Amino acid sequence: MTATVLSPASGPSTTPESSRPASPRRRQRLNVHRTLASVVIWLIVVVQVYPLAWLFITSIRTEQDFASGNPFALPTEITFDNYVRAFETGNLGLNILNSLIVTLGSNLLIVLLGMMAAYALQVLGFRLSRFVRALFLIGIIVPVQIALVPLFIDYSSVDLLDTYQSMIIPLAAFSLPMSIYLFSSFYEYIPRETYEAASIDGAGPYRIFGQITFPLSVNTIVTVVLVNSIFIWNDFIFANTFVLSDGLKTIPLGLQNYIGAMGNVDWTATFAAVCVTITPLLLVFLVLNKAMIYGLESGATKG
Q1: Which chain regions cross the lipid bilayer (predicted)?
Q2: What pLDDT was estimated at residue 112?
Q3: pLDDT tens, 270-293?
Q4: Architecture of 88-298 per CATH?
């Protein structure tokens, strides 16, 4: 009795469906999807970039050209006198310094308090840690406007009005919920074996935080700082409520200096001032955008 041997060609096909060449119709569908995705991406890029390009182009137009011509047209004459007038009209340098102090001070509080709170809630843990974390997250939906009057009354009673602290404290407080969420999401995926090994070696919670958790959190720190810096740098409501003197005005308040008599606005100088004030944020974002993206991804995926 002889055995019959089937050749590979005569047997049923074992080639996976995913490795087969795509049919013409499927390739056509994929090409259409890629084209549509490319069109959507380019539309988003244009929508995001065009205001910045228009802002810079307008900042180098003459006043007469902007007032008499089409505000969206290209400049007929290029001038940089608007930037000189921007510094002469208002205290732009002092406003930038004040915004820098408020932004750095707020971010320092946000990072320190956010990291320590997330470390206590996610790594150390305690009986009601999930409940406390939920309470922090509720703060994300609380509008800042409800705190203005109580804070103004409290600041008046403790002589904190018209100080840097009057802006730094509420800005840091309202940014903490999201920061705690980002840090907690990242700490959740740090292997527990790492902390157990450090504990076996005799490391306490403070040493573990300083030598393990903090170094691993660099990208998340960059993400938290960049996300909050945009909100803090452009803050108007707290500065407008608690700042009373010109010496402490931040950039959003300082832009009011370009409004003259009868509500007349020096638009070209205002656009030049805005260009100067957004440049630091753009440069920092361009330099650290990869770390920011990695920090967001590390809190969303395990690995």
Answers
A1: 35-57, 96-119, 131-153, 165-187, 208-233, 267-288
A2: 93
A3: 888 888 888 888 887 777 766 666
A4: Orthogonal Bundle (1.10)
Which letter does DSSP use for residue 15 in this model?
-
Question: For 98, what's the count of Cα atoms within 13 Å in the CB-facing half-sphere?
Answer: 26
16 versus 172: the higher-pLDDT residue is: 172
CA terminus-to-terminus distance, the chain: 58
Which of these, 58, 300, 55, lies nearest to 186 by C-alpha position?
A: 300
Angle of helix 81-89 relative to helix 267-298, nearest 10 degrees, comes to 90
Note whether 96 and 140 are within 8 A (CB). no
Amino acid at 55: L
Measured distance CA(233)–CA(278) in Å, rounded? 9
Quote the tokens at residue 72.
Answer: 């969206």
Helix (H, G, I), strand (E, B) or coil at 78: strand
Distance CA 173, CA 218 (A): 21
Residue 222 near residue 295 (C-beta atoms within 8 A):
yes
Question: In angstroms, rounded to a whole number, what is the distance separating the alpha carbons of residues 173 and 165?
Answer: 12
Domain boundaries, the chain: 88-298
259 bridge partner residues: 265
Kindly report, residue by residue over 6-58, the tens digit of the pLDDT: 444 444 545 554 455 557 777 777 777 888 888 898 898 888 888 888 888 88
Residue 40 structure tokens:
């959507």
Per the structure block, which two tokens stand in for 20? 């087969």
On whether the CB atoms of residues 107 and 220 are closer than 8 A, the answer is no
Report phi then psi at 71, rounded to 5: -65, -15
